[in-house]
Amino acid sequence: MNPVKQYLSALLLIALASLIIGCTEPAKSPDASATTEVTLINNIQGYSFDNNRQLFKFDSMAIVAGKVLETGTSIGANYPEANIIDGQGKTLIPGIIDAHGHVSSLGYTLQRIDVRQADSAAEAAAAVGGYAASNQYLNWIRGRGWNQVLWPDKQFPTAAQLDSEISDRPVWLERIDGHAGWGNSKALELAGITRETISPAGGEILKDADGEPTGVLIDNAMNLVSTVIPAPDQSEIAAALDAVSSHLLSLGITSTHDAGTTAAEHQLYRQLADSGDMPVRVYGMISSTEPSLEQILAAGHSEDEHQLYSARSIKIYTDGALGSRGAAMLEPYSDRPDHSGLLLTSAAQLRKLFKLATEADFQVAIHAIGDKGNRIALDEIEHAYATVGGRHLRHRIEHSQVVAIDDIPRFKSLDVIPSMQPTHATSDMNMAENRIGRERLKGAYAWRTFLDQGSIVVSGSDYPVELANPFDGIHAAVTRQNKANQPQGGWLPEEAMTIEEAMRSFSIDAAWGAHQEGSLGGLTQGKWADFIIIDQDIYQIPAEDIWKTQVLETWLAGELVYAKDP
To answer: What are the extents of the domains in the chain?
Structure first.
């Protein structure tokens, strides 16, 4: 049935008093001539950004064929036969765009054991043991979320701790940042890891004083285990997508950038989008480690007519993460003077990947957390411009987390997008200074410095490393505090954003980071009617309350896709 007819039928049956257009068919130029297909939402506290990235308010919005027809003040007279919806004075904003997440990883996390709340290695191991006992059918026990930095002893966990709970099946738990893994002895055995195993380039097998593997593998060393874990099939990927989509939509996220899309995921997303069954918008960054990368690039950009799935970017890693000391630093770690982090991709491979991407007209989204990782990324972008071009591609540095002061202006001069995740600052503040010292923090989590020089900052969460709730990120961006509003005055508060800047970075600017600002990220004529209704006016409330914001309804292309239970 035509979605418009579905909507009208539902309206007649249940008198649906909600904001729906009921059509996902695209309309390059919305046409109001058929007034019965227009939905007019009145009596709203509407906020959006125009095509010049400027904030504007409105109290009415007209929608047709899944797209915005008009936003303004008291525009009802223009559409006398429209379907009228009373917004009841509620706040309406564009759907949130999370510019950096890991779709399938979050989907799997939602379906596996999550030890994020464990206060010690023993508590995490006990939770895994209970999970394994309740899931006897699983050949591998998998999960995520441990963070030794938050444990009393701050020590990496061991295989022996997992063995005490489960030893007959392999266990593999990724650290919260995804840059380290913790396995039991069975997992190490299946991976062939012994005291003689040498750490691979860009990775580290942690060993004890006797030279025995402890059970923790850092960055590229994780591949030793992951390669022996059966790859998910299409049904598992689809189940993960369903799980993550429902979760994201409930949080007001209508579009997400997937930082590391596999070939199998790319294929499935294309199929779902072409059939109109993709539940949330995804901008795919194809993983540079995919064996079929060159074939995917050769096939060109992917985008269905509804823009449910788009792919015109590749994801590359320079280094690891700060918490596991895998972030590549120009100088050694303050709390490990013999170590300066890890480089996950060789210089020769980086150069090859930039050439491949540029020649295929694909954006590069390159992960860099340490100041050395960021410098390498900037150097490679500069070299690519000089040799193969690509300045128009809007290359991004994912995280841009710890940057040498002298390198920050290079983002602007090279037209590089700092793609940043505000909650990383409030999560890392408990260990960042220990890792790198006070001086290097001057270029860390430096949102204000980037904004003041004219860089467009795009924001995301990096779920499942962090929770996906965008209002946690907006709160962190504005206050530089955790949800307990600590520390007083904020951590490195001089780098805070305004509420307007934070909202821009999660909407129109995030769309710009995906070459989608012409169709997403705002509620102006011709853009997709992706919007959310929230329970408080985020522009007027005290900053300390931002994280408390609840999503009442989420709409994708003018259709209701989530409603909070009364």
So the answer is: 1-95+521-566, 113-226
d(CA 57, CA 552): 20
Q: Are strands 60-64 and 67-72 parallel, antiparallel or unpaired?
A: antiparallel
Residue 162 CB coordination number (10 Å):
28
What's the pLDDT tens digit per position in 67-95? 999 999 989 899 999 999 999 999 999 99
Q: What is the pLDDT of residues 12-32, one digit of tens each?
A: 332 333 333 333 333 344 554
| 186-235 per-position pLDDT tens digit | 999 999 999 999 999 999 999 999 999 999 999 999 999 999 999 888 88
Question: How would you label 215-230 residue by residue, b for 16+ Cβ within 10 Å and e otherwise?
Answer: bbbbbbbbbbbeeeee
With tokens 């799997």, the residue in question is: 108
Cα–Cα nearest to 19, from 75, 73, 68? 68
Identify the architecture of domain 113-226 in CATH: Roll (3.10)
Which residues have CB under 8 Å from 181's CB, separation 6+? 172, 173, 174, 175, 216, 217, 222, 225, 226
CATH superfamily of 1-95+521-566: Urease, subunit C, domain 1 (2.30.40.10)
CA 472/CA 432 separation, integer angstroms: 20
Backbone angles phi, psi at 234, to 5 degrees: -60, -35
Q: Which of 56, 45, 41 is nearest to 504 (CA)?
A: 56
Coil, helix or strand for 163? Answer: helix
* The two structure tokens encoding residue 50: 């125009």
For residue 35 the two structure tokens come to: 């007034």
- What are the CA-CA distances from residue 363 to residues 73, 390, 392, 547 (Å)? 39, 8, 9, 32
Looking at residue 405, its amino acid is: I
Residues comprising the chain, all counted: 566
Closest CA to 327 of 380, 379, 378, 368: 368
